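Forwarding these from the shared drive since the link keeps breaking.
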Amino acid sequence: MLLKAGTAIVVVIAALAIAGPLLTPADPSAQDLPLRLVGPTLAHPFGLDELGRDVLARVLVGARISFLVGLVVVSVSALVGTLLGAIAGYFGGWIDDLISRIVDTLMAFPGLLLAIALVAVLGPSLTNALFALTVIGWVGYARLVRGQVLRAREFEYVQAARALGATTPRLLLRHVVPTAIPAIVVQATLGMAGAVISEAALSFLGLGVQPPTASWGTMLSGGRVHLLDAPHLTIFPGLAIALLVLGFNFLGDGLRDLTDPRQPRRAAPVRP
């Protein structure tokens, strides 16, 4: 149930983001100052913001930004974390100690605060926000893959492949790392939700996407001063963030239940 609900939510929001220009003809950057802060109407279902820009068009653009950030951060983090985690778990020794100490050091800091500090040093921009979120994102994958590899390297078929002369890269790519793929997929799905929230937080603070580019975080930041006279400025981007994060969480929980062998399986009905 969770898997179907999460998939449906994510697919619908992704389809809306892709088909944004077809759903609303409004230019997300076009200003109509005489109509600023106008509430939802038939012509503008989500209303207009403080500069007279169409909120629906900007929400759809923000969806593309959120998916872009999630895909880039999760892809790079999963690749780097899987590589370093596999190396640490398979070789052990001082290599494992070095990588594990780096992971422990980064995990000792609150992730979002570390990202804020990095972007503050590098300068506010979407590129720097992506870099900062990737720096704090790979450690979870590294720890996860390391644990999986420590278990998988002792499997009999891995020992047999090693005895037959299989090279280390072949052992890792063909026999060891694939055992961690289900866990990586679940972690990546949940990581998408975390990346969406983190990007929104950085943009809200002015450290992520820069105006006039639309982002859910910047829309919330601009709308917070109009909570009483124009609540639609925060309601719609806030709902978009909540729905997308909820969808990814449902999807991750559903995949975890599907791939976890310890979960009880419902018996198939007996047909007469």
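-- next protein --
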Amino acid sequence: MTMTNLTDRRILVTGSAGFIGFHTAQRLLEAGAQVLGIDNFTAYYDVSLKEARSAILKKAPGFRLARLGIEDSNALGAVWREFAPDTVIHLAAQAGVRYSIDHPDDYVATNVTGTFNLLELARHNPVRHFLAASTSSVYGANTEMPFAETQRTQTPMSLYAATKGATELIGHSYAHLYGIPLTFFRFFTVYGPWGRPDMALFKFMKAIAGGEAIDVYGHGKMARDFTYVEDLVSALVALIDAVPGIEPVSAADSLSPVAPFRSVNIGGGSPVPLMDYIAALEAATGTEAKKNFMAMQPGDVPATHASADLLRALIGFVPETPVRDGVKAFVDWYRDYYS
């Protein structure tokens, strides 16, 4: 899709040293934006990977970094007011379904309190558009496929999903009360180069490279709407100018009747069986993986499937990179990075 021109924009990106935040900040800088990245380089996974991502961003003259946690309202407010963003892309979060079972306090502090701090700043320092990451996990126990933005999301299966759902609700109240234009995007299993070590593809690759077996949960019978990171970023950046107004763009629109607020799936609408995903990795590495088939873990769901109708109506684009191509790109990056 056509590159968005952002030469007049000042964009704050939280979680800029993270997987999706790094790719997003890179794309914004390429489009000419001034970018303030915020990240606290938490040790949830290998900090050296975050430092490596950040080092690449620092080479761009339009980028500056603030090392702080969004839970710190005073430090956050100081850098916000100095930079004076016109747009916010909020990607910082404590991620991971399984980690939330043992470390619930981290999720409430970062995902809920941190998001609240950002919304308070947007309340007192208006922006053109506040975009924030949610997750497909908010669909929880829903069994109707594909997942559409207009479905109820009151049955989360993990605390991670519950905190993300809570930020959507808090965001809606701020959009209604203070007129903040807000878009929450629900990500569907994002993967690709520079990915997170706690995610399945990274774990599988590390095990294969070390000659070890991979753990295949749900006995391999799960399916996911996998989204290649470059496709996700293309959609995310295009949504910057899709500011919620007062008129729905289609019958599939989740636009609130009382606020400039919508939620939108970023997924291609093409679920892939887990075993096909693993087969793509085996093809890219030229190695058949040894497999430990295991029961589904607490908090997991058997399948995800995005409705892409609203995304297509908003920006005319949906993620479409084939899993084989995306997995090969990840393998090429992994081998280069760890060579």
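DSSP finds eleven helices and 13 strands in the chain. The longest strand covers residues 129-135.

- D.
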